[in-house]
Each structure stands twice: as C-alpha cells, then as structure tokens.
Amino acid sequence: MFIDHLLAAQADPVAAYAMTTGRMWSLIAAGVGLAGIAAGGLALARSTGRLPRRTTPGTGNGPGTGPGTGTGTGTGTVPATGKRGAVVALAAGVTSIVIGGWVIGAAKGGPGTGYGIVGGYLDLILGLAAVVLGVLVLNRARRPT
Predict the structure, then answer these.
(1) Alpha-carbon distance 3 to 104, whole Å?
(2) What is the Cα–Cα distance from 36 to 13, expressed in whole angstroms?
(3) Nearest to 108, CA basis, from 2, 6, 19, 7
(4) pTM of the full structure
C-alpha cells in the first residue's frame, strides 16, 4: 500500500527523540491543525466584534481609492465577514484529520514505537477543533444582521 511506503517500518528499536517518517507526518499535520485553529480563532474573534474587521475593496461604479482597487471600480470598502478564515480553518482541519488518520492506520505499534501514533491522535483532536471553529464562523456569517 502507498501509505506504508511513506510511513516505512523500522526494523530496529527507535530512540525516543529520533525523527521517523511517522513522527514527521504527525508533526506536519499538527502544524496544519494549529494553523487552522489560529485562522478559525481569528475569524471567530472578528465575527464577534472582538477584533477590528479588515475591509475588502467595494464593487461600486465610482473611481477606486487606495491600493488594491485595480481598475477603479471600487467606491469604498465592504466589511469582511470572516468567511475566508473559516474556509482556511475547515481546509486545514480536514487535512489534519486525514493525515492523522493515515498515520494511525499505518502504525504497526503503540506509543513509543516510532510510528507517530500519539501524534496521529493529537492531529485528530487539533483537526476537529479547527473544523468546529470554521463551522462556527460560517454559521455566524450566515445569520442575518
């Protein structure tokens, strides 16, 4: 199976701090999950009004002002709803869950064997937290004001 080659089995005992492929994939997924939590947390804080909202260029008929307006079709700014942060949180959370599941599925031993199974379970938790934050922000953005 393809994933078995990515998480190659070690024939010899593994040192406690040795970087194996299973541990490496677990660390990558944990980083992605933490980035998703950060993006979702910032988007949730912006959607609740605890942080100032960033603005995006408008789409009116007048000349645009400021950087990023391009051809001059913007008339001002429209408050951002946090949907971009929610989508980033959802994508990062699902990615973390998938990689963590692969690590757990390919592990042939328990904790301490070098397969990264503990990190795989941590990836599932971080990914789930990022997905929950993303869903909260999307639900908040969908509500009428």
Answers:
(1) 11
(2) 34
(3) 7
(4) 0.71
